[in-house]
Structure formats: C-alpha cells, structure tokens
Amino acid sequence: MRIADLTFEPLIDEETIAKRINLLSEELNADYEGKTPIFIGVLTGSFLFVADLIKQITIPCEVTFTKVASYFGSTNTSHKIREDIDLSFDISGRHIVIIEDIVDTGNTINYLLAKLKQYNPASISVCSLLLKPGKLELSIEELHYVGFEIENEFVVGYGLDYKELGRNLKAIYRLVSSGDPTM
Ligand code: 5GP
Ligand code: MG
Ligand code: MG
C-alpha cells in the first residue's frame, strides 16, 4: 500500500486489534473497579484506540483528551515536544489512565507524566496500544498496559499517521524497507 511517497505492508489486522482491546478493557475494568478513573487520550494518534477501548469499559469513568506531539511529518523521532497540553480539567486526587497510540523512545509519555504528576493525581498509569521496546530510552514505570510490542519500524493506520495520512485505516501497517538508516 502506498501512502504519500512510501510503501507499507500489513502488520496487525482489524480482528487482532479488536481482540487485544477486549482483553485490555477487561484488565482495566478489574483494576479500576470503584475508582471512577479519568481516561486521558493523547491526540491525535490515539483517537480510534480510545473510542474502541472505552466502549468496552463497563465501570463509571470520565474520558477526555490532551495533545502532545513529538513527530513533525516524518518517520523519525525528534526530541522536540510541542507544548500543546490542555490541562484545564482537574485531576487532583483522581485515578488517571493515559491512553497513547504508541510509545517509541518514551520521551513524549515521560514529559506528559511529569506534567500530570504536578497536579497530584491519586494514581497514574499508561495504556499504550503499541510499544517499541527496542527504541525505549527511558524506563516508564507507569506503562502498565500494552497492546502489542513491535519491532523498530515505522507504522501507520488505526489512528497513526504518515504525513497526516493513513489515520483512517482499520488495520496497522509497517513501512517496507525505509531506506532511512536512522529508523
Ligand atoms: P516517543 O516520544 O515515545 O519517541 O514518540 C511517541 C510519539 O511519536 C507517538 O505518540 C507517535 O505520535 C509518534 N510515533 C512514534 N513511533 C511512531 C510510528 O511508528 N508511527 C507513527 N505514525 N508515529 C509514531
Ligand atoms: Mg501519540
Ligand atoms: Mg504523527
């Protein structure tokens, strides 16, 4: 499949994603019973994951979004993080679950965790659909829920973009031979 100037091939199909999300939601329903958690989706990449996950949450909960971005239209991580965080909602004393599309180096989630901790939540954990263990630069203690561990490869689909394209794809695709030595 061609997206802009690059070629991608299937990695995780729709049914596999749905089954994994069912299991993650069962874990969350059990772990947060009686806690009325606030699920905070990190825009834009997590929007489909949040929607599908939250439909399977059966305990009382709140859902909101925030925005942080570290990639600027390429397949490479930059360590620049745009400060675009909306924290107008009150999280003090609350149980927070951050929902991410993917944890790559871990810098974005680390930054967001540090910001949120300043508001004294009762607890904070991270639920990421994807994780690239081989690219993690920091250990993220709060990363309690991971959908799939993947190789050091660039992926698109199911909310994740390449040059803002491909977010609408129902499955997840990986870049075919990037030719980019830094990936
Ligand atoms: P980190 O700060 O962990 O290196 O990067 C996290 C962010 O970079 C993710 O939330 C996502 O927006 C973007 N990112 C990292 N890896 C990929 C990837 O393989 N594909 C896409 N589309 N975005 C990625
Ligand atoms: Mg993200
Ligand atoms: Mg992106």
What descriptors fit this protein?
alpha/beta; binds guanosine-5'-monophosphate; five-stranded parallel β-sheet; four-stranded antiparallel β-sheet; single chain; 3 helices; about 180 residues; binds magnesium ion; 9 strands
> Order of strands across the biggest sheet?
4-3-5-6-7
Backbone structural class:
alpha/beta
Largest sheet: 5 strands, parallel
Q: How far is the N terminus from the C terminus?
A: 19 Å
Mean pLDDT: 90
User: What value does the Rg take, in angstroms?
Assistant: 16 Å
In terms of per-residue confidence, which ranges show pLDDT below 50 for 5 or more consecutive residues? none
- The CATH topology of the domain at 17-68 and 82-154 comes to Rossmann fold
Helix content: 10-25%
Oligomer: single chain
Which molecules other than protein and nucleic acid are bound? guanosine-5'-monophosphate, magnesium ion
The SSE string, one letter per element, is EEHEHEEHEEEE
The tally of strands reads 9
- The level 1 CATH classification of the domain at 17-68 and 82-154 is Alpha Beta
Task: Sum up the overall morphology in one term.
Answer: globular
Roughly what fraction of the amino acids lie in strands? 25-35%
What CATH architecture of the domain at 17-68 and 82-154 do you see? Answer: 3-Layer(aba) Sandwich
Protein described:
The longest helix has 18 residues, at 14-31. This protein has a domain at 17-68 and 82-154: Rossmann fold (3-Layer(aba) Sandwich), CATH 3.40.50. The chain contains three helices and nine strands, in the order ββαβαββαββββ. The mean pLDDT is 90. By secondary structure, it is an alpha/beta fold. Residues 45, 71, 161 line the site of one magnesium ion.
